Please model this.
Amino acid sequence: MRRLFFALWPSPDMRRELVSCQNLAGINGRLVSRHNLHATLCFLGEQPDVLLEPTMLAAGDVDAPPFTIEFDHFEVWLKPKVVSLCPTHVPQALVELQRSLSSALVHIGIAAEKGPYQPHITLARNIVIPQPEIGQPQWIKWLVGQFSLIESRLNRQMPVYQVLASWDLKY
Ligand code: 2AM
Model:
């Protein structure tokens, strides 16, 4: 079995910006490591190895254009105890990418997640509530040109995310 998810995977430059955002926010919680920062598209959960190839074929069939997304504010989510960086405006191209990927997965028997899609980058987990006042981030403008399939593995009880494959978004 493999624990899988699709994500927008930041470049090294984008990661640097995200880390400075994490540090400036003054978050009281466990910061997500630089390497693991990402924006989830679809969470697949634990899947048998035989589904890996169909999953990759399904992703390869997704036809979606590149887009720009601006992450412009922090949100504190009390129930999962996380601080996330979120966009105010969700680009239509992202909504469509996420929908086509989810329906391609349903076709191969991987159920879509319940609830609306809320793009975000989790910056910290296990946060202390109430959080100290969190300032506003510098806007992070991300030109998204591809999406990736990620495997989550445990290393000394900590998740480490590894990119298995990436697909280009094309006009
Ligand atoms: P996140 O997107 O809020 O950070 C791997 O576990 C990634 O998939 C994490 O980034 C996680 O949360 C996201 N994810 C989405 N739904 C999940 C679920 N039901 N269980 C665990 N992780 C989930």
